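Marked as duplicate of an earlier ticket. Keeping the data here for the record.
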Amino acid sequence: MIAEALRQAVALGSELPGAPGASGTVVLVLPGQPEGDRVSATVWADGRPVDVRDSPPAVADLTLTLAAEEAGAVALGQLTPSVAYMQGRLKTAGDNRLLLAVLAATATPAFARWRSSLACG
């Protein structure tokens, strides 16, 4: 489910502003699920998502950890990733340049459309 949603986000990647040099693998962790932590990986190139990996790498360039409740609030548009980060609700580890590109991407109309498609789909 998460991987499919991320594939939809990759399809919108060309609409993002981009950030030259902000490239690497971003791993999203949603901990504490009944079936175990949900983990997904997205490859970013120059500030845009370009691919989804079915299995995360042993070492990520950027790891984002967000509680399931917080992820739900993001998906519903009740919480922006930038605010979650500033409030300490989105935990990060790794490449700050890549983090800034990811956060910038979530402040775009393309992200809002993607989020809306999740609510409808």
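See parent ticket for discussion. The longest helix spans residues 109-120.
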